[in-house]
């Protein structure tokens, strides 16, 4: 029976968790090997292994030995060569994965730096705009005060002129009305 597609999930995605691919699993394995080989514990274990191998093949009776000291421990040399031949590529694979992660991280850092620069430039423009608006506002306040004082002075002059003109008209009326 065919299962009908669910409408609440995008196509190609099921409800089960996607299992990591074998390539990713192998990549994690290579990183584990590289991390393990770079530890003092690994070096100590490898040294103990070699010492035990040499001691076994030199101190035990001949019928229990499996690697001849007279031939230069050929089997031990082959074992260490085999270990090295697998270790080098695994370490290189782990380094390649780390390089890929570093490349992605550098790109993300670059994008983050670009966003921060754009945000900083935007904020700088906003601060400049606010400063200009404040300067304009302060200039307008000074201009209003000066204008207000000038208008008061003109009003006072007009009132003085009206009083003088009113006195002059009153005097003419007074003299003109007595003569008639």
Automatic annotation (TrEMBL):
Name used for this protein in its record? DUF1003 domain-containing protein
Lineage: superkingdom: Bacteria
Species annotation:
Microbacterium sp. A8/3-1
Q: What start-end ranges are recorded for coiled-coil regions in this protein?
A: 96-164
Pfam families linked: DUF1003
InterPro entries from the entry?
DUF1003
Any idea which UniProt keywords this protein has? Coiled coil, Membrane, Transmembrane, Transmembrane helix
Matching PANTHER family: INTEGRAL MEMBRANE PROTEIN-RELATED, MEMBRANE PROTEIN
Q: Which stretches of sequence are listed as region Disordered?
A: 1-21
